[in-house]
Design goal:
Largest sheet: 5 strands, mixed, barrel
Structural class: alpha/beta
Number of helices: 6
Bound molecules: adenine
Distance between the termini: 9 Å
Number of strands: 10
CATH topology: Rossmann fold
Order of helices and strands: EHEEEHEEEHEHEHEH
Helix content: 25-40%
Strand order of the largest sheet: 5-9-8-6-10
Length: about 230
């Protein structure tokens, strides 16, 4: 059975995994706690990576190099950018880009990397299919499949949200997944990101964010319970 790395954003989501983790073992690396055990019948390592791209990238490389995880699933919250997407909805990433990578003075398009084969990291097609299946069971919440953009910025302005949506054709924004995707891409490890929408990345974002955290945690439980046995 492949070992699955689960990177979650919040304590609430980790609790959900830990409650059902059999034979749990905790390991400390780089200030993060990695919980190894059996979840929904499969061997997993679950961890909170912290906020932002550096934390997320470091955490991902540790999962791959030290724990030898063969698949990586990232669960968390995101700000909705598409006008139809509401808090509580779920977005599965099919491609991921870093919106704060900006080498325009060197002649590169926004979000494009210097001397790298790609700028939009794709999710693994099998994991994407299993994520769709897992999402079909979400009660009272819609799900969307499309691009998620990542940057070291909490987006809380309607102008910026609209601009990211239009420029990158992105459904949602958050602060980790495209850096996890980049590390997985470089290591040839299948990756998927599934995010619950906590806010609309506008002026009320910080309030919605607090209110929708429990819903996001509930969505994460359903998704992981449904998806892990498929992986
Ligand atoms: N995660 C959840 N909401 C977000 C937002 N508005 N901007 C960045 N990351 C987020």
């Amino acid at each position: 059975q492949p070992l699955i790395g689960i990177i979650v954003a919040m304590q609430e989501e980790l609790e959900v995994v830990l409650q059902s983790l059999q034979q749990p073992q905790a390991h400390q690396r780089a200030g993060m706690t990695f919980y190894q055990g059996i979840y929904a019948g499969s061997p997993v390592v679950a961890v909170i990576c912290g906020v932002g791209k550096v934390n997320a990238a470091l955490c991902t490389q540790i999962l791959i190099s030290e724990f030898h995880t063969q698949r990586i699933i990232n669960i968390g919250v995101a700000g909705g950018l598409h006008p139809e997407i509401q808090p509580g909805d779920v977005v599965i990433a099919d491609t991921l880009m870093q919106h704060d990578m900006d080498l325009r003075p060197l002649g590169l398009a926004r979000g494009h990397f210097y001397r790298m084969d790609t700028h939009a990291f794709p999710s693994d097609p099998m994991l994407l299919q299993w994520a769709r299946q897992a999402c079909a069971d979400l009660k009272n919440h819609r799900f969307f499949v499309g691009r998620i953009v990542t940057g070291d910025q909490f987006i809380a302005s309607p102008e910026l949200a609209q601009e990211l949506h239009q420029h990158f054709d992105a459904l949602a924004c958050e602060m980790e997944s495209a850096s996890i995707a980049q590390v997985c891409f470089l290591n040839h490890i299948p990756f998927i990101c599934i995010r619950s929408i906590s806010d609309n990345a506008n002026t009320g974002a910080h309030m919605d964010f607090a209110q929708f955290t429990p819903i996001a945690a509930a969505n994460a439980t359903t998704l992981l319970q449904n998806m892990i046995p498929l992986c």
